[in-house]
Every structure is written in structure tokens, then in C-alpha cells.
Amino acid sequence: MTQPEIAEFASFLEKERNDSPHTVKAYTRxxxxxxxxxxxxxxxAWSWAGVDRxxxxxxxxxxxxxxxxxxxxxxxxxxxxxxxxxLDATRxxxxxxxxxxxxxxxxxxxxxxxxxAEVDVLFAEAERRAAAGGFAEARDLAxxxxxxxxxxxxxxxxxxxNHDLDLVSDQVKLRGKGKKERIxxxxxxxxLAVRRYYRHRDALAPAGTSDRRAVFVSxxxxxxxxxxxxxxxxxxxxTLTRGRELHVHSLRHSFATHLLDAGADLRAVQELLGHASLxxxxxxxxxxxxxxxxxxxxxxxxx
Length: 303
What we know:
Strand order of the largest sheet: 1-2-3
Number of helices: 14
Helix content: 55-70%
Largest sheet: 3 strands, antiparallel
Strand content: under 5%
Distance between the termini: 65 Å
Radius of gyration: 23 Å
Number of strands: 3
């Protein structure tokens, strides 16, 4: 009874909304989980039109009992809301019980980022390794530079093709969430690091196994997976004192925070990050305010 609608919903997310594969998978899984819950909740036949907000509240409660984080529960509720809007558009179903249920309140945590001193230490070590090493070290430095220079996401870097990266104009074309494209400037240090890496990569060029399109490849010439990129950057971050706390996304957070600290316009940072909503970018202003408070309390004689 429910599977055709869910399958059509997945197709709608992928082909019409251009959502990322991760979003399509997560939203489809959430709606399928709700359908399974309704089968148990109603104990027999039920329909999408007959679902009430008590069922949605019961489902959200069950998710929390299973130990699901509040952020994941909020995403699940958002998936169900979107599904009911889809049913309204395709079947004229003008009810949305997920809309009436209360959204789990999220704790607003400040994004973890590197301070300027840590950035200096990190890049000094990455440059030292690149100078003393070979292909892998040069590649890892280039990836690190691009992450911090552009604020790109992990999936965006792993998916980079040669024609996306223009080292003459010092810019890169990125495909973000929903396959939306944006052009982002590339800094001088990143450009130089990529050029050095290209020389190593072109010298390697194993016959028959090379992915000619990919910017970042393994020693065998195959495109790096997001997991491989993650591990390479994690090894570099591990050289810092608090390296175990940091991750690839910390570089994106650092990019945004340091731009705003230096007086960059919030909307410009929003465009660079590829955020659909300005509200998503505003979390970095809180980071800047917290930093200013810390400086104030350390420096002001009557703080």
C-alpha cells in the first residue's frame, strides 16, 4: 500500500528537486520507517490520509527511545513534511500531520574551527611533508590548501574534475547540495600547491588505470573516494594538539570564521559556502562574537 508512494517520492527528490544522493536516501529511509511504525501503531489497515498528529508524535517519541539524536529526529520530521507536500501536489492530499507535531528543539552548537595559530602550524607541517615526500604528500597538501582556500565540502573536493579547476583564472566550479553550481576564488597558495601536485600526478600516470577526469587520484590513478580524502586530511590534522577533535569540515568552518573575523560581508560568505539560507551562515557570526567576548574578558581591565 505504501511502497509505490515512497518509491515515487524518492524519484521526485532525485529528478525534480535535484537533491543529493545522501538526502534522497535519508528522506526515503525516514518515510519508510514511519510507514512501518504506522503498521504497528494502527494494528491493521491504515492510509496516509488517515494519519493524525498523535501518530507522528508517537513515531518521534519512538525515534528518541531508540537513541536517535535530536538533529536526526528533526530531519526525519522534515522528511515526513516534505513527503506529505509531495502527496498534496501529486494526489491532492490536503493534510499534513507532520506539520502540526512539535519539532524537537535543537541545541545550537558552535562549529569547531582552527584558530590562526593552529592554521600556521598545520600548513607548516603539511608543507614540510610535501617538500620531503613525493606524490601522496604533495597531493595531501593540495587538498588541504583547497579546503581552507575555498571552504568546499568533502564531497565537492572528491568530485572535482580537471575542467572544474581553472588555475589560470584562479577559480573553481563547485557542485553543492541539490547539484547547484557556484564559482569560488582559489588563493595563491592553493594554486601553487595544486600545480606542484599536478607535476607529481602527471609523472605517475599509470597506463590503463588513470581516471583522466579526476583532480585527486590514488597512486594507481583512480579517483579518491571521500573516505580516502577524509583519512588523508585527518592524518594532517592529527599533528595538532587537539587534532582528535578536528575533522575535514573544521576547515570549512575555519574558512568562514576567518573571513567574517576579517570583515567579510555575511552574504558574500553565504555565496562562497553555497548555503541556500542566510540563517545557516549566521552561525559563524556567533563564533566571531564568542571570540570577541573571550578577547574582551582577557584584555579589558574591568571586564
